[in-house]
Specification:
This protein has 692 residues and is an alpha+beta fold. The protein folds into three domains: 289 residues, Beta-galactosidase, Chain A, domain 5 (Distorted Sandwich), CATH 2.70.98.10; 196 residues, Aldolase class I (TIM Barrel, Alpha-Beta Barrel), CATH 3.20.20.70; 192 residues, Alpha-Beta Barrel (TIM Barrel). The strands form six sheets. Strands 6, 7, 8, 9, 12, 13, 15, 16, 20 and 21 form a ten-stranded antiparallel β-sheet that branches. A hairpin with a 5-residue loop joins strand 1 and strand 2. The two termini are 45 Å apart. The structure holds 1-deoxynojirimycin (NOJ) and calcium ion. 1-deoxynojirimycin binds next to loops.
C-alpha cells in the first residue's frame, strides 16, 4: 500500500469512528462529491431517512417498515445498534451497451437495527450514496426470531418536498404499456386509467405509479424513483398520497396468497433508488441502476452480437399477414424469410426475427385455456427452420428465435430446456419472448414474485444454452443486465406496434421525449423504431405514426438497445435515400453524451461507435417545432468528420407532412457548431464518419 492509500484508509476509518462517537440514533452518509447527504435516524420510534442535495431537502423524513402475515409489523420500537461505513471507487466494463467503461464510485453505510423489546428482531439498512443518486435496501440477517417472512406490504416512504411536475404511468400490476401522463403530483389519478381497450391485460388496484417515475421540482432539480436488482421479490409500485405529498411502496400481489412476498432468511430486498440531477440529461447519463447490481455471473456472452434486425412482424401488426397458418395469409414461410435475409445481408443488418413460425397460433388470443397450446420446437409445415438458419448463415444473417408464451409461463417452463437446447444445436443465440394476456395460473400478475422468478429462470436457462433474451410483456428492467448480460433488451413500454392498431390515436410525438427520461433509465428498450411509411397506407385507414421520418431515424441513436429493429416492410426502404442512415448506424457504443434535453419536450444524444471513432447523433422533438445549436465538442481533438445530416424538410410536420426530409453533408470537427431546426414531431439524425 503506498502512502497516499494508507492515509486514505486511515481517514476512512476515522470517519467511521467519528460517526459512532456521535449520536448513534442519527447517522449521515454523503456522496463522494459531497452534494448528496442522507440522514438515517429514528423518527417517532421508527426507522427513517431523509435526503439533502446541495444543502437543500429533496426527500423529507420518510419512514421505513413492513407488514407481515406471519408476525407483527416492523414499525415502532427499533434502535440503531451499530454502523459501518465503507467506500468504493472502481471501474467495470459492459460487454455491450451505451458505454464500455462504467465508473462505480460510492460511499456505503450499513446501519444495524434491533427491536427494543422481545423477540428483538434484527434488520439492517444499507445505504449507498453515489454522485448521481442513492440506493438503499433492507437486509434480514439469519436470526432466531425470524426464519421465514411472509411480507404483506413493504412500507417504504418517499416524502416529497413539494407538488412536483411528474411524468408517470399507472402502477399496473400486469403491464407497463401505458402512455405517460404529465401532471402535478397532486393531480395523479391512476385509477381513471383502468380498463384500456388496447391492452390484453391490465390491473390497476391503487392510485399508484410504476417506476421509473421522474419528476422536476420547483427549484429545477430532477428526481427519478426506481428499483435495482429485483430478485426473488415482487415488483414495487409507488402509491400516491396526494394530500401529504408522498409516495409509499406497494408491492405487486397475487390472488393466490395473502402475502405478496415469501422469503427465508437471510435475504435482502431489491435496492430502492432515487436518481438526483441538476440537468435532465444527467438522468440518462446516470449509471446508478446498473451499478447497484452484482457483477457478471454468467461469464462470456460474446455469442450474442449486438445487431439491427428485420422481421416477419410489422406485416402482422398491419394485418397484411398473420401469425397463424389457417388464415391463408401466413407470414412465416421459408420463402419470405429468405427474401428478408437477402435484404438484411445487402444492407448491413445482422438479424432476422420470424414470428408465427411454430404451431399453436390458432389458439392465441381470446382463448381462456392457453396452457399447453404453444409448442416451441415444432414449426408449421411451410417453414423449414433448419433451412432458414442455414441460409441465414450463408448470408451472414442470424435468426432470432421467437417464443410467444401467451402468458402461460408454466407451459414455457416445461419446454425451456428443450426449446433452448434446440436453439443451441442450431446455433441460434437470441430469442424474443412474449407474455401477452391474463396470466395462467389465474390470480398471478406479470409483475409479482412468482413471475419475477419465472423471468429469471429463463435468463438462467438461457445462460446455460448461450441464449440471449429480449422479453416482451416483461418484468421491468432493474439493471440485471450487469449480472446477466444475456438480458439484452426488452419491451416494457408502449412500443411502436401501438401506432399500427391502438384505438386511441397511437403514441403522440412527445412519447419518446418522455420515455428517454423515464423508462429508458431502467435499461435497453426494444421499441422498433424506423417506420418510413408513416401513414401506413394503404393498410391502415385509422392509424399512423405520429412523428416525422427524421424523428424515426433519430430514435436509433436516442434509444439505447444492443438490438434495434428495422421493422417496416422492405418495399418502403428499398431505394429510399434516407435508408442510408439505418444502414450506417451502429447499436453498440463506446460512450454516450446527452447534449441537451427537457423531459417530454426534446432530447439530443451523441454516441460513439464501439468499433471505431465514428459518432452518431439523434435529436427528437415533441409536437412543437424548435431550433437548437449543437456543439461538436464531444469529438476528439485534431480529427475531421464527414457529417451526413438527415433533417426535417422545410414543410415537415408529424401529421401534415411527416415524410418531408432532406439530406445535407458537411465537414465538422471539435470546434463546429450547427444550428438545427426540428419540425413539430420532428427530429434530426447525424452520422459522423471520420475522414482518414
Ligand atoms: C406482443 C409483442 O409486443 C409483439 O411484438 C409481438 O408481435 C406479439 N406480442 C406476438 O408475440
Ligand atoms: Ca412537451
Amino acid at each position: 500500500m503506498n502512502i497516499k492509500r494508507r492515509l486514505l484508509a486511515f481517514m476512512l476509518l476515522a470517519t467511521a469512528l467519528v460517526s459512532c462517537n456521535g449520536n448513534m440514533q442519527e447517522q449521515e452518509l454523503k456522496s463522494p462529491d459531497g452534494k448528496i447527504a442522507i440522514t438515517i435516524n429514528i423518527e417517532n420510534d421508527q426507522p427513517a431517512y431523509h435526503v439533502n442535495f446541495n444543502g437543500k431537502s429533496v426527500i423529507k423524513s420518510s419512514t421505513l417498515g413492513f407488514d407481515f402475515t406471519n408476525m407483527p409489523a416492523i414499525k415502532a420500537g427499533w434502535e440503531i445498534v451499530s454502523v459501518k461505513q465503507t467506500n468504493n471507487n472502481s471501474k467495470w466494463e459492459m460487454p455491450w451497451g451505451e458505454k464500455r467503461v462504467v465508473e462505480d464510485n460510492f460511499n456505503q453505510l450499513i446501519v444495524a437495527l434491533v427491536e427494543k423489546q422481545a423477540p428483538n428482531r434484527k434488520m439492517n439498512l444499507v445505504f449507498k450514496a453515489y454522485n448521481d443518486g442513492i440506493g438503499f435496501r433492507y437486509e434480514f440477517p439469519e436470526q432466531e426470531a425470524m426464519k421465514e417472512l411472509l411480507i404483506a406490504e413493504e412500507n417504504t416512504e418517499f416524502n416529497l418536498t413539494g407538488d412536483h411536475k411528474v411524468w408517470w404511468i399507472p402502477g399496473d400490476w400486469d403491464i407497463y404499456e401505458h402512455l405517460y401522463h404529465t401532471t402535478k403530483f397532486s393531480e395523479i389519478d391512476a385509477t381513471k386509467l383502468r380498463g384500456h381497450a388496447s391492452l390484453a391485460q391490465t390491473s390497476i388496484p391503487n392510485n399508484a405509479v410504476n417506476t421509473p417515475v421522474s419528476m422536476k421540482t420547483e427549484e429545477g432539480i430532477y428526481l427519478s424513483f426506481h428499483e435495482a436488482n429485483l430478485t426473488d421479490y415482487s415488483g414495487m409500485t409507488l402509491k400516491v398520497d396526494t394530500t401529504n405529498m408522498k409516495m409509499v411502496s406497494t408491492l405487486v400481489g397475487s390472488e393466490r396468497t395473502k402475502y405478496k412476498v415469501k422469503r427465508s432468511l437471510p435475504f435482502h430486498t431489491p435496492w430502492r433508488t432515487i436518481q438526483i440531477a441538476e440537468k435532465a440529461g444527467d438522468l440518462i447519463q446516470s449509471d446508478l441502476i446498473v451499478n447497484l447490481n452484482e457483477p457478471n455471473k454468467i461469464g462470456d456472452v460474446s455469442y450474442f452480437k449486438p445487431m439491427k434486425y428485420v422481421g416477419i412482424w410489422w406485416d402482422m401488426h398491419l394485418g397484411t399477414k398473420t401469425w397463424d397458418k389457417a388464415s391463408g395469409k401466413h407470414g412465416a414461410t421459408t420463402e419470405y424469410a429468405k427474401e428478408l435475409i437477402d435484404f438484411a445481408s445487402e444492407n448491413n443488418i445482422g438479424g432476422i426475427l420470424v414470428e408465427g413460425w411454430n404451431t399453436g397460433w390458432e389458439h392465441w388470443i381470446g382463448f381462456e385455456d392457453r396452457e399447453g397450446v404453444f409448442d416451441f420446437v415444432t414449426a408449421y409445415d411451410d417453414y423449414n427452420l433448419p433451412e432458414v438458419v442455414r441460409y441465414g448463415k450463408e448470408k451472414g444473417v442470424e435468426l432470432i428465435m421467437h417464443h410467444e408464451t401467451s402468458a402461460a409461463p408454466r407451459t414455457y417452463d416445461q419446454q425451456l430446456d428443450t426449446a433452448y437446447h434446440l436453439m443451441n444445436k442450431l446455433g441460434i443465440h437470441s430469442v424474443k419472448t412474449g407474455y401477452v394476456g391474463k396470466l395462467i395460473p389465474k390470480g398471478e400478475y406479470h409483475h409479482g414474485q412468482w413471475m419475477v422468478n419465472h423471468y429469471r429462470r429463463a435468463l438462467e436457462m438461457g445462460a446455460k444454452y448461450k441464449v440471449a433474451i429480449n422479453a416482451h410483456e416483461p418484468i421491468k428492467a432493474t439493471g440485471l443486465r450487469r449480472t446477466y448480460p444475456n438480458a439484452i433488451s426488452r419491451e416494457g413500454l408502449r412500443g411502436q406496434e401501438f401506432n399500427a392498431w391502438s384505438s386511441d390515436g397511437g403514441n403522440p410525438a412527445e412519447h419518446l421525449p418522455i420515455v428517454a427520461f423515464t423508462r429508458m433509465l431502467a435499461g435497453p428498450i426494444d421499441y422498433t423504431p424506423g417506420v418510413f411509411n408513416i401513414k401506413l397506407k394503404p393498410h391502415k385507414a385509422n392509424n399512423q405514426v405520429n412523428t416525422t421520418l427524421a424523428h424515426q431515424l433519430a430514435l436509433y441513436v436516442v434509444l439505447n438497445s444492443p438490438i434495434q429493429m428495422v421493422p417496416d416492410l422492405i418495399e418502403n426502404y428499398k431505394g429510399h435515400p434516407a435508408f442510408q442512415f439505418i444502414r450506417d448506424v451502429v447499436v453498440n457504443w463506446e460512450q454516450t453524451k446527452v447534449l441537451n434535453g427537457e423531459i417530454g419536450d426534446f432530447v439530443t444524444i451523441a454516441r460513439q461507435d464501439r468499433a471505431s471513432d465514428n459518432w452518431f447523433v439523434g435529436a427528437i422533438s415533441d409536437e412543437n417545432a424548435r431550433d437548437m445549436s449543437i456543439k461538436f465538442d464531444f469529438l476528439p481533438e485534431g480529427k475531421k468528420y464527414q457529417a451526413i445530416l438527415y433533417l426535417d424538410g422545410e414543410k415537415a410536420h408529424w401529421d401534415k407532412n411527416p415524410t418531408d426530409y432532406k439530406i445535407e453533408k458537411k465537414t465538422v470537427d471539435i470546434n463546429s457548431i450547427l444550428d438545427l431546426h426540428l419540425a413539430a414531431g420532428g427530429g434530426a439524425a447525424i452520422s459522423l464518419i471520420e475522414i482518414k
